[in-house]
């Protein structure tokens, strides 16, 4: 088997509109509607599908739960600019900027929480 990339990840959330607002207004993703009023968030060549907690689509994770995800997202926007943007939107930085190791090498990251408490790492390759 020769895997290439992640196509999408499912986020189980308490409040879909609140999640859409955070990911579109703060992180610049695009809202996507598909198959029977389902909602997702798109960026680059990836997508985050949203499942309402307690009303998840089948098949689903064995234990879907809001706040159980830790995502690292690579950004073209420099981390210093990301820090200013987050402050302008009233989003607290939990940690960073700090150097970490990403899938393809060193990265510079800041960590924030989404409305469900998921940890979102926003990073630049170094």
General description of the model:
- InterPro entries: Glyas_Bleomycin-R_OHBP_Dase (IPR029068), Glyas_Fos-R_dOase_dom (IPR004360), Glyoxalase_1_CS (IPR018146), GlyoxalaseI/FosfomycinResist (IPR050383), VOC_core (IPR037523).
- It comes from Thiobacillus sedimenti.
- Keywords: Metal-binding.
- There is one protein chain.
- This protein is α/β, with parallel strands linked by helices.
- Helices cover 17% and strands 42% of the residues.
- It is built from two helices and eight strands.
- The strands form two sheets. The protein has a four-stranded mixed sheet with strand order 1-4-3-2, with helices on one face. Strands 5-8-7-6 form a four-stranded mixed sheet, covered by helices on one side.
- The model has no long low-confidence stretch (mean pLDDT 96).
């Amino acid at each position: 088997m020769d895997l290439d990339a992640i196509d999408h990840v499912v986020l189980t959330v308490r409040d879909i509109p609140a999640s859409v607002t955070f990911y579109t207004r703060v992180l610049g993703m695009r809202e996507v509607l598909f198959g029977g009023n389902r909602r997702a968030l798109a960026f680059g060549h990836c997508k985050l599908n949203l499942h309402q907690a307690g009303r998840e689509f089948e098949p689903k994770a064995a234990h879907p739960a809001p706040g159980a995800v830790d995502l690292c997202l690579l950004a073209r926007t420099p981390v210093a600019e990301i820090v200013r943007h987050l402050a302008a939107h009233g989003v607290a930085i939990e940690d960073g900027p700090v150097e970490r190791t990403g899938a393809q090498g060193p990265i510079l990251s800041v960590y924030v929480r989404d409305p469900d408490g998921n940890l979102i790492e926003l990073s630049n390759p170094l």
